[in-house]
Write a structure and sequence with these properties.
This protein is mainly alpha-helical. The chain contains 2 helices and no strands. Helices cover about 40% and strands about 0% of the residues. The two termini are about 25 Å apart.
C-alpha cells in the first residue's frame, strides 16, 4: 500500500494530504539514487587529478587543497578534544564529495 501522507506535490484531483502513485515512485527513486555513499573528500583520487590527459596543474592544486583540509581537520579535532559536546560533522575528514539526501 502507498503511504497516505508526505509528498513532493499536491494534485487538484485528490485530497491535499494524500500522495499519488507517480509522486510516491518519484520520491522513492530520488531517495534511492541520492542516498548512495560518496567517496570521502580527503581521498587522494590518484586516478583522477592529473591522470589520463588531465592538466598536470590539477595535481598540485588538489594537493594544496588536501593539505588545507588536513590542517582544518586537525584544528577541529583539537577543539573537539576540549569540548563537552563534540562537533564531529565539522571535521573535513568526515566530508563526502557529494551531499547525500
Amino acid at each position: 500500500t502507498l503511504p497516505d501522507r508526505g509528498s513532493f506535490r499536491v494534485s487538484l484531483d485528490c485530497d491535499e494530504n494524500k500522495m499519488d502513485t507517480q509522486s510516491y515512485i518519484l520520491t522513492a527513486v530520488l531517495a534511492a539514487t541520492t542516498s548512495v555513499r560518496m567517496p570521502r573528500l580527503m581521498n587522494e583520487f590518484k586516478g583522477f587529478f592529473g591522470a589520463k590527459g588531465a592538466p598536470k596543474w590539477e595535481k598540485s592544486v588538489w594537493k594544496k587543497f588536501q593539505e588545507k583540509l588536513k590542517s582544518q581537520s586537525a584544528r577541529v579535532q583539537a577543539a573537539d578534544s576540549e569540548r563537552e559536546v563534540k562537533f564531529k560533522h565539522f571535521d573535513p575528514a568526515r566530508f563526502e564529495c557529494s551531499v547525500s539526501v
